[in-house]
Amino acid sequence: MRKLFLILLSAFAFAAAPKILPAAERSLRVSFSAPATVYLPLWAAADAGFFKKQGLDVEIVHVGSSPIAVSALITTDETQVLSGGGTVAPTAYLQGERGLQIFARMNNRFVFSLFSHPSITTLEGLKGKKLGITRFGGSLDFATRYFLRQQGIDARKDLNLIQLGRVPDIATALVAGSVEAGTVSFPHHLILKKLGYRELADLSQMDTPYATTAFVGRRRFLAENEPQMERFVKALIESIHYLRSHRTEALKIISRYTRLSDMELLGQDFDFHMQKIWPRVPQIQPEDLKLALEELGERNPKAREISPADLIYGQIVKNVIASGFADKLYKQSP
User: Fold this and answer.
1) Would the N or C end of the chain have less CB density within 10 A of its end CB?
2) In this structure, which long-range contacts are made by residues 151-159, counting pairs with CB atoms below 8 Å and at least 24 apart in sequence?
3) Is this prediction's pTM over 0.70?
4) Angle 121-127-130 (CA atoms, 0-180°, nearest 5)?
5) Dihedral sign (CA 188, 190, 195, 201)
């Protein structure tokens, strides 16, 4: 317990003790789970000044471990918003924590691609082959198996699934010939394309929604701070609008947060997210969570008993939509 406390203290300690502000005026600390392009609207809202424009004092922090991020949100009050996978809230729910709810989402698609050696030209050609995944039970594993099942292929029976730990390790194993296929994400799908490997499927093209990136808060906090959180959502909306016409600035922000310098790859990834991923309004819908609950249900059948509506705090985005904020913004400059 002492070690965990020190880790939390190290990860979330402020440089100086903050002033105690009224609830409606308090600063916001927002965590994000990975240096991935999908979080660009959050980064840009901070870097380009849209949070300040909305009268908000927002600090964003990278917290790679979901358990630590959830602990900071629930028990320490060091963060007020968690931005991460759509399974965070239902996982906490299954563990008895009923106070977390999703109030917005940035992405409801799988952002994975299934690649193979050039000699494999069809999905049927994968049968009997070794296919690299991260870990059993992870979102990438689930997305792969779900997609193949839709194509009439049982990944557990028809393929040899190999756990490789990380996406970079999957790409490395494919190039080395340790596996004949693998599911990867940015930037490795672009690198594999350059090397001549075959993209058998772009899983973002699937019609089934899946809350890959969601914004989560404590129900009580969200209810007590609705006006403040409405301004938070407005800043995200204005950030997405800004990114549509500021590609150069967007690539600089991505590079800074991801620590990647290949502007060609970053540009391709930015264009993909702008065209297919980011919504004008980050509204979470119950159908965005159905597949996430199905994923959890494979490990814990009780997940199938959860109603998606119980995991959503929808009033904040509904109020923003009713205000006409996004409509006015895009009417002024489409």
Assistant:
1) N
2) 151/123, 153/123, 153/124, 153/126, 153/127, 155/131, 158/126, 158/127, 158/128, 159/126, 159/127, 159/128, 159/129, 159/130, 159/131
3) yes
4) 95
5) positive
Residue 142 structure tokens? 């689930």
pLDDT digits (tens, 9 = 90+) for 84-122: 888 888 888 888 888 899 999 999 988 899 999 999 999
Q: How many residues does the chain have?
A: 334
**DSSP assignments along 276-313, one per residue:** HT--SS----THHHHHHHHHHHTT-GGGGG--GGGGB-
Spatial CA neighbour of 243 closest among 76, 42, 16: 42
3-class SS shares of the chain: helix, strand, coil, % to 5: 50, 15, 35
Residue 20 pLDDT exceeds 60: no
Strand partners, 214: 84, 105
